[in-house]
Amino acid sequence: MSEQLQIRNLTKQFGGIDALKDISLEVETKTIVSIIGPNGAGKTTLFNLVTGFYTPDHGSILLDGREIRGLAPHEVARAGITRTFQNIRLFPWMTVQDNIIVARQLKCSGGLLKVCIRTPLIKREEKETLEKVGEIMAFFQLREKRNYQAKNLPYGEQRKLEMARALAAEPKILLLDEPTAGMNPAESKECVEIIYQINETLNITIMLIEHNMNVVMGISDKIFVLDHGMKIAEGHPEEIQNNQDVIKAYLGENYVTHA
Fold it and tell me: CATH topology for 1-80+171-259?
């Protein structure tokens, strides 16, 4: 299995303080990888660097061997990496369908002039967009609510819509920032099933930040652990559960999993 994403010696400072320091990790194609660690460890900063919201002070980010460091967020999305956010960032007054259509524009080539004169290319892309958005809504069981305003969806479905929107650009890698945050057990279970389906059915690599250790240990092919901006461990779930540095820094001496 090949390395799809390679992060090498990534460093980011804010006000002279290291948010991330010399982080290196590799993510293999079509795997599910979790990033864990205490609050302030640098997890979301890592996501922000990979997706172009921040520019690293040092280091490189390679996607399929191509350097993407310094690209703007929309350029990173076009290259093949999209994300969700810890705090839901939908367009609340827009419909479910329109929220996904907006993200789908990254796959369209038409400029303003082509749109205004309604070229055959634009008509074909509009048709393809509606078909693809319909498939995505069906995948997330949101088709019947396509005309609902996003703000009127239950919390769990808003989370699903955010994932649906991130998939509209057909990414190679999907970054999920605390996808089960605020969910009840039933919603968390459904979310995990969806993540599995995205990975296995759509063959998309998943990176997630998650504090629910039952989710992390049950879903991950590999886990990276950050603490104070540094990587302190990496390995399979069983290795991480038994790593004394991880137990001390994050899991706690009394840590146990509950299936």
Answer: Rossmann fold (3.40.50)
